[in-house]
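TEACHING EXERCISE
Course module: macromolecular assemblies
Task: Read the component lines below, then compare them to the predicted structure of the full complex.
Student: A.B.
Group: 4
Components provided:
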Amino acid sequence: MKAALYVHLPFCVKKCEYCDFVSYAGKLGKADEYIDAVLNEAKTRKAEYGLTSLTSAYFGGGTPSLLSASQFTRLTEGLCSLFRPEEGAEITVEVNPGAVCREFLAACKAAKVNRVSLGVQAYQEKLLRLLGRIHTFEDAERTVELIGEAGIENVSCDAMFALPGQTVGELLETLGALAELNIKHISCYSLILEENTPLYRKVAEGRLSLPDEETCREMQLKAVGFLQDRGFERYEISNYALKGFESKHNTAYWTGGDYLGLGCAAHSYMKGERFSNPPLDEYLSGKNKTDVQTVDAQGRLEETVLLQTRLTRGIELSAFQRAFGSANLRQLLRNAAKYPDYTEVSGDCLRLNTEGLMVQNALVLELLSGLSA
Amino acid sequence: MATQLSMIRNFCIIAHIDHGKSTLADRLLEKTGVMVLRDMTDQVLDSMELERERGITIKSKAVRMPYKAKDGREYELNLIDTPGHVDFTYEVSRALAACEGAILVVDATQGIEAQTLANVYLALDHDLEILPVINKIDLPSARPEVVKTEIEEEIGLDTEGCPLISAKQGVGIEDVLEQIVEKVPSPEGDRDAPLQALIFDSYYDNYRGAISSVRIKHGTVKVGQRIRMMACGKEFEVTECGAFLPGGYLPTGELQAGDVGYIAASIKDIADIRVGDTITSADRPAAQALPGYKPVQPMVYCGIYPADGADYETLKDALERLRLNDASLSFEPETSVALGYGFRCGFLGLLHMEIIQERLEREFDLDLVTTAPSVVYHVLKTDGTMVSIDNPTNLPPINEIARMEEPFVDAHVITPADYTGAIMELCQEKRGVFRDMKYIDGGRVSILYDLPLNEVIYDFFDTLKSRTRGYASFDYELKGYVESDLVKLDILLNGETCDALSIIVHRDRAYARGRSIAEKLKDAIPRQLFEIPIQAAVGGKIIARETVKALRKDVLAKCYGGDITRKKKLLEKQKEGKKRMRQVGSVSVPSEAFMAVLKMDT
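Instructor-supplied answer key:
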């Protein structure tokens, strides 16, 4: 079989203020041991699923670019000896601005990496500091240049909004600066305060305050228009791309494709099962695929609506009907018809408009009402 | 074997709440050796968890205590523990009718309170010998002499030799026992006359069926005898009878005039044993029943619905189980457009209602939605007929109503004089009609008002407590029906009337209540995908309006491989939340919203 591959590299120089991902500062010394564990896990899963080729690959983190060039090469060569990327497969590596060297990028290029995702987050120094980022916007600019020089042309940048103290103007300043760079893709998403993060505590204690609901709405709306004006079309709630540069790997997540996640805390969806790995220490001791959940027909139906309504393309109705039957399709369209201000059917797709995407969470529940597979 | 009448004393203990009735009962049991100290929990006779927790007695209970008095003779003392709340006034009156004497417990720090007086009047109605006892003399703020004067002047009881006790510390308990022997008259009755046994309580035992607590007034009852319930006419065969022990039975095979005890007769339905009914012999029936029987009349009604519709059967089961033990609880199925299938339940009063709700939730692990309590209104229709309405939804159309009447109560408040103004203001606000006020000793005032019951059940008691910092005491009794300008207040959500939120209210109060309900609903109903107007209306005219604004944005976060499980969990939570909501037209209303309407204003 084939699938998308995700590899989690959990090492960081410092944890960001808002981050509740499984990532560790000061554990880079375990990188070699970790690579061995990932390759071991890869072998196990290959045997288990008969997985031979990859539709896409994504090295995320953490900060993958903290690995040395030789470590990264050992990892990718090991994986390539097990799985063959399909012709032209999208292979992405996450990089932090300022935290990458030419050698690493050369190693990426050699490993057929053709896309880099860069966590820029904001233009303004004060916001970067508030987020606990350890780079400046200039670092990002230089990194984009370095990536280009390494021969990797497809670059994506992340930007965050709804940050404490952030204004709509500042968000647009960030997006403007990003659009000036030679990049093809922008992820722009709202900060989610996760419990057990320093930022959460600061807000809870009243030392910082988030922008109000109307400001957040304005940020979202303005961002959509602003990016569209610069050629970046919104194709998912928080993703924008120049034509043809939509992320293939991430699209697999939203369209129910199989994906294998390797590494600590990585999640997989393989042959109707969702499973995940434990945190670093347990993972290094050889434990993986510890939490397995089977997705039944009802689960697939709900995931389809939950995930595909995130896409501006929407839910493909003919595919939906094939998978879940015409009664469910009729009910879905009936449900959608109750919310004409938020939904539209065009061609073969039921999609949420900009206002609908704004309240996607609540809408999903309404769209699912009375559907049963 | 039968104890001579002259050696029996039947008595009860009456008191205002918290004056120490149950603690004194504990001490009497201990002193007479019926209970050994190490076996005792506090408030032995309050066997329900809820009774202990709230410090109130809900059901009457009796217990037999042998007592060797100072005169060297062995007496049989029957203590009947009575409920201590206005909701149960009828039950109390039946328990009192089973006694010859009453110990009146008065708190040495607080003196006479509204329920003290109400209970004294009840006891006097039954010609009981009243023995005042002043309790809590161990407290630093005790002022027994002042309280004695109060008792003498307010009630007119002789306090010469009145025991000064501390039930908590076990001081003066023997004095109380001696006075019972000395002052409470022994029962009278003809043991050879036809049987007349007064039922003063009933409850359900899993092995014996429905059991009557009785006082034998005349005659004798034996195992195997056929008995007849005089009010309901049913006949049974006695399977067991005897005396009460704390938490148990002492079968004696026979009860005679003067005795207090229990009768079991394989009775399945507790409704066959009505409190106040007379048991007689089927073969040799008494010429007439004992006086004072009244069929149970619920004063307050509300709808009780399962929060999760799937729990309907469990709720039905639970209500049936509670009714086994509580003949005063009535319920019948009803449907609400908003709430689905549930029950219209009738209660003796607000406390009774609260207790039943709490027991349903606690003992049967049910999640409930209850509607605003309603009293019973009389609707006189234009065609000359009269209907009783306990559910606002059933109110006939306006053009068929000639006039309406609502129940009024005699309300009696005792309060420190400082709060007189506040209380009169409150009663006035509640459409009360002033009747009388007089000063009693200790700087306190006794105030009498006529109050509409529907104001009393709304938030009167809570407001009274808060405006008098808990110092005022309150008691009421149904007085009768009075013509009143009543209207039905409807609540519309997104243009649709929500039947479960309708209430009947006096026209003058409609505007304020409507506004307050709309405000509370605004906070209780979560924002949804569309704007929700909340309107309060009387007869089609909108009198208040609030709006729940439409949801403007929810999470706009990223969602990649690892976030999907999280998103699905969130979806499950949303579904769970929605299941607990009621659909009123297009609007999802959380269960809490129906309850929020009941909360008091402040």
